């Protein structure tokens, strides 16, 4: 191609109106994009509303959840509660002047274990009765006087009077 042909071609192109190309999304693609953005916003609002509803129904607060409160000494549970799995606790107390009530459909077991997880003492109350296993079993009066004691070597009755009913 010669130089004259190149200038002629440039003159022809420059004499025409410049073409404007649309850049962006137009038509049905734009409508689909807006639809998906709107759908996403609706889902976000529904998710936020359900999260707030769950927090309100479960009574979540800064102090804890429901009747379970977090205190400096540990967890504080107020009211009746149900445990589906075993409960492990260092200490269980009732409010001052209120009884501690434990209820079970089978039994209530209290196990004392050592650092190697070996059973040292066990207390089981159930429908068949009351069982205690350990090295020593003692019953004392409110004043601290020994009323009954039993270990592997001997059984001691410390009451002033011993009354045996039956044969």
Automatic annotation (TrEMBL):
PANTHER family reported in the protein's UniProt record:
DELTA-SARCOGLYCAN (PTHR12939:SF6), SARCOGLYCAN (PTHR12939)
Q: What UniProt keywords are attached to this protein's entry?
A: Cell membrane, Cytoplasm, Cytoskeleton, Disulfide bond, Glycoprotein, Membrane, Signal-anchor, Transmembrane, Transmembrane helix
Which superkingdom? Eukaryota
What organism is this sequence from? Pogonophryne albipinna
User: Which Gene Ontology cellular component terms are annotated?
Assistant: cytoskeleton; sarcoglycan complex; sarcolemma
Subcellular location, record wording: Cell membrane, Sarcolemma; Cytoplasm, Cytoskeleton
Q: According to its UniProt record, where is this protein mainly located?
A: membrane
Work out whether the entry's keyword set contains Nuclease: no
ATP-binding as a keyword? no
User: What family classification does the UniProt entry report for this protein?
Assistant: Belongs to the sarcoglycan beta/delta/gamma/zeta family.
Signal peptide residues are: none
Chain segments annotated as transmembrane = 32-55
Taxonomic lineage per UniProt?
Eukaryota, Metazoa, Chordata, Craniata, Vertebrata
Q: How does it sit in the membrane?
A: Single-pass type II membrane protein
- Give the InterPro entries listed for this entry: Sarcoglycan, Sarcoglycan_gamma/delta/zeta
Q: What is this protein called?
A: Delta-sarcoglycan
One GO BP annotation of this record: cardiac muscle tissue development
């Amino acid at each position: 191609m010669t130089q004259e042909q190149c200038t002629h071609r440039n003159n022809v192109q420059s004499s025409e109106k410049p073409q404007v190309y649309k850049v962006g999304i137009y038509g049905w693609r734009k409508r689909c994009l807006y639809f998906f953005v709107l759908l996403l916003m609706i889902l976000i609002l529904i998710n936020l509303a359900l999260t707030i509803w769950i927090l309100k129904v479960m009574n979540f607060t800064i102090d804890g959840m429901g009747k379970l409160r977090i205190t400096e000494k540990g967890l504080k549970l107020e009211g009746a509660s149900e445990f589906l799995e075993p409960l492990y606790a260092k200490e269980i107390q009732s409010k001052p002047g209120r009884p501690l009530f434990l209820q079970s459909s089978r039994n209530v077991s209290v196990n004392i274990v050592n650092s190697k997880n070996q059973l040292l003492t066990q207390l089981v109350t159930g429908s068949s009765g009351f069982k205690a296993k350990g090295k020593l079993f003692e019953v004392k009066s409110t004043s601290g006087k020994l009323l009954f004691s039993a270990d592997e070597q001997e059984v001691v009755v410390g009451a002033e009077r011993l009354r045996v009913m039956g044969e």
